[in-house]
Design goal:
mainly alpha
């Protein structure tokens, strides 16, 4: 056995980190951009 838990943990951690890092900055950016567009359109 080659410690599958040891190999899985970093994989999941990296995947979750990438997902969080990719979604978190993209979310506020998209919301901000949409908000700005809506503000400009409504104003």
């Amino acid at each position: 056995m080659e410690k599958p838990g040891n190999k899985k943990s970093p994989n999941i951690s990296v995947g979750a980190f990438v997902l969080e890092a990719g979604i978190e900055p993209a979310r506020p950016k998209t919301l901000d951009f949409e908000s700005s567009e809506f503000n400009i359109k409504f104003t």
